[in-house]
Specification:
With 68 residues, the chain is α+β, with helices and mostly antiparallel strands. The protein has 1 helix and 3 strands.
Length: 68
């Protein structure tokens, strides 16, 4: 489980590539936010999420979901 005040439950991690970060300028931020929203809309039962940048300069959105 995710919380210590609830009974344990199964979770699952999902990762979604949002593209490269190297050439991201101010106008591109709106497009990144749109991609983040689209990825979230396609992922049911989200508990939390994180945006990461890999050593290859790739944006990855990671979702933790309730899988039960």
């Amino acid at each position: 489980g995710y919380r210590d005040d609830e009974s344990p439950y199964p979770i699952k991690l999902h990762s979604v590539s949002l593209g490269k970060a190297a050439h991201l300028g101010a106008p591109d931020l709106a497009n990144l936010e749109k991609k983040m929203a689209e990825a979230a809309d396609k992922t049911p039962n989200i508990i939390c999420h994180e945006l990461l940048v890999t050593t290859d300069d790739e944006f990855i959105m990671v979702f933790m979901t309730h899988s039960g």
